[in-house]
Amino acid sequence: MNTSLSLSDIARRLDVEASDVWQVHDDALEMKRRGEEVILLSIGDPDFRTPEPIIDNAVSHMRVGRTHYSPALGELDLRRAVADLETRTSPHPCSPDEVAILPGATSAIHVVMSCLLNPGNEIIIVDPMYVGYPAIMRAVDADVVRVRSRSDNGFEPVLEDLQAAVTANTKVVFMNTPGNPTGTIIGRKRLGAMARYCYDHNIWLVCDEVYSMFTFEKPHISIRAASQHLDNIVMIDGLSKSHAMSGWRMGWIVAPPTLIRHVGNFSAMSLFGSPQFIQDAAAFALNNDEYYVREMCAEYKKRRDFVCEQFSNMPGIRYHRPAAGMFVMLDVTEINPDDTAFARDLLTRQKMSVVPGSGFGESTRGHVRFSLTQPLEVLREGCERLGRYVRENYRV
Ligand SMILES: Cc1ncc(COP(=O)(O)O)c(C=O)c1O
């Protein structure tokens, strides 16, 4: 490209090298393309098909002409379906005025952060964090303050640590429950206390809850359910995980109507609405989903129980049993404290890919993320390969 033509600061901030951490996944995909028998356990996309009735619903809406522009904040029927879900799962009644529809949680987080943060403002985020967050924070040019969690505390953030990180420049605290990669559910008391603290200090509390429907023993507690006041509370969720609809791009924001108005302005300027037939099918999904969601959740639980049982027989491996979500974190420090080297070597020798934990932050350095998004027989083979690798490489 002609080097005298200039680019914006945001374009430059986003133009960073893909980290080493994802190289393992990319290499595994390349090996698979070459025909090698690679097991991909580095994926965060559900392996289930989108339930057939949801597909049928979208197609029938396409056929009757629901293929045009829609309001920037989303179709009223879908906003109502989300509001009804929120009303059912928290003591606060929710109205469609508090809901905005966006194409995926990623877009929802970006829009929210764009409406809340100026360059140089501080945002506090619990570490480890989902790998999609840093690019969004770079885009809005926020200063990210990571607050570490600890495996011996089940990766739940410690309230005092979060509070100690707050400064006069803190505008947002950002949480993710149930968490990716750890599957940790933040308890009601902790969420409620943090919400209260943020309310008292004029700080927004934003919570990403995209794994809310995949909890195994304890129910999910939403930030809205745990908070007494909602004036500073923003909740983000979507259908990518819960309904195996990642490619449909469907997410939403639940927030005070005053903020939703600004979200609408941002969305009108940048997205100009989501496809009508996708919103129709999403509303149908939310109103008719119980059976499918329960079935997928039960399958993830079966997979989690199976692999944890296998891990408990592997010397040198410690596992964190997730309370929710689609991943299990394995502590591999006794075999190789360099998690990226561990993952690379595992791919070379056993042809299976996992994600190095350092990609999510310092709190999971020395870990790798083992994905549950493969059928049980693939997971069984993955556990066998991992077991072989561990036996060959663990020295007591
Ligand atoms: C915690 C978390 N938030 C958001 C996303 C992205 O969700 P969406 O597909 O709705 O953009 C993911 C995807 O892996 C995730 O793990």
Topology, element by element:
Blueprint: H1 9-14, H2 20-33, E1 39-40, H3 52-63, H4 76-89, E2 99-102, H5 105-116, E3 122-127, H6 133-139, E4 143-148, H7 159-165, E5 170-176, H8 188-200, E6 204-208, H9 223-226, E7 233-238, E8 251-254, H10 257-270, H11 276-287, H12 290-311, E9 318-320, E10 327-331, H13 339-350, E11 352-353, E12 355-356, E13 367-371, H14 376-393
Parallel strand pairs: 1-11, 3-4, 3-5, 5-6, 6-7
Antiparallel strand pairs: 2-8, 7-8, 9-10, 10-13, 12-13
Helix pairs in contact: 2-13, 3-11, 4-11, 5-6, 5-10, 12-14
Bound molecules: pyridoxal-5'-phosphate.
Q: What would you note in describing this structure?
A:
By secondary structure, the protein is an alpha/beta fold. The protein folds into 2 domains: 9-49 and 291-389, Aspartate Aminotransferase, domain 1 (Alpha-Beta Complex), CATH 3.90.1150; 68-288, Aspartate Aminotransferase, domain 2 (3-Layer(aba) Sandwich), CATH 3.40.640.10. It has 14 helices and 13 strands. The chain has helices at residues 9-14, 20-33, 52-63, 76-89, 105-116, 133-139, 159-165, 188-200, 223-226, 257-270, 276-287, 290-311, 339-350, 376-393; strands at residues 39-40, 99-102, 122-127, 143-148, 170-176, 204-208, 233-238, 251-254, 318-320, 327-331, 352-353, 355-356, 367-371. Helix 6 links the parallel strand 3 (122-127) and strand 4. Helix 5 packs across helix 10 and helix 12 runs parallel beside helix 14 (376-393). It is globular, with a radius of gyration of 21 Å. Residues 44, 104-106, 130, 132, 176, 180, 208, 210, 238, 240, 246, 251 line the site of pyridoxal-5'-phosphate.
